[in-house]
Design goal:
By secondary structure, this protein is an alpha+beta fold. The protein has 3 domains: 45 residues, no CATH class; 95 residues, no CATH class; 40 residues, no CATH class. Helix content is 33%, strand content 17%. The strands form 3 sheets. It has a 4-stranded antiparallel sheet with strand order 1-2-3-4. A two-stranded antiparallel ribbon has the order 5-6. The protein has a two-stranded antiparallel ribbon with strand order 7-8. It starts with 9 loop residues before the first strand and ends in a 10-residue tail after the last helix.
Length: 210
């Protein structure tokens, strides 16, 4: 089986720099650098499987302040964690259909422990919320980030990618160049208008115009 090249990929806080020597077990290893600057050699299956997402610096910070961590039940990070689990694992949650109902799950170690979630992700920065990089994958260290509302909106499944003037962009981005608002532009595209027409027809022409 051909080895998957992880060079340049990010897993949690770790950025893969290059392939390293293989361990005696035969598992491929990789040179990585943590956001804190620490360099390590990590097994590829540990990176891809979400078992290793930092050099250990955040874990050390947390275990060194364990009382502070256990006192976070009122912190917004704890609320984010609980809501993440609810929409993925509780069919009664209002958001279930868009998450658990379509197979989105939370990695087991985050289900088991809020401390593990904080160890991998850190506390939620002000103004940011948890976001999945790949919307078809679940919540795990290698697929999650703290993102702004704008970044999350750009990453939604509903934000269709289109080609215009040689550029790939979302409909939200495309609307900035259109003579109509985003709602009208989306309606035009949903009614199978060619992009060039949708982008040049004046505001007075409806999305259902002939």
């Amino acid at each position: 089986m051909k080895l998957r090249d992880l060079t340049g990929m990010r897993f949690g806080r770790l950025l893969v720099i290059a392939r390293s020597a293989e361990r005696k077990t035969g598992n491929a290893t990789w040179d990585v650098v943590c956001e804190c600057g620490t360099k390590r050699i990590v097994r590829g299956n540990h990176l891809v499987g979400g078992r290793t997402a930092s050099c250990g610096c955040l874990h050390n910070e947390i275990t060194g302040n364990i009382n502070r961590i256990h006192g976070l039940s009122n912190h917004r990070t704890h609320n984010i964690w609980m809501k993440m689990i609810a929409r993925c694992h509780k069919p009664t949650d209002p958001a279930w259909n868009n998450y658990g109902g379509r197979g989105i799950t939370v990695t087991q170690k985050w289900l088991d422990s809020f401390e593990a979630f904080v160890s991998d992700m850190g506390l939620a920065p002000a103004g940011l919320s948890i976001d999945r990089i790949d919307n078809d994958r679940g919540y795990d260290p290698g697929n999650c980030r703290w993102a702004t509302a704008k970044e999350q909106a750009m990453n939604r499944r509903s934000n269709r990618i289109v080609e215009w003037n040689g550029r790939s962009m979302t409909v939200t981005e495309l609307a900035a160049f259109a003579p109509v608002n985003e709602k009208t532009l989306r309606a035009r595209l949903s009614n199978n208008w060619p992009i060039d027409r949708a982008m040049t027809e004046p505001r007075s022409v409806s999305a259902h115009g002939g």
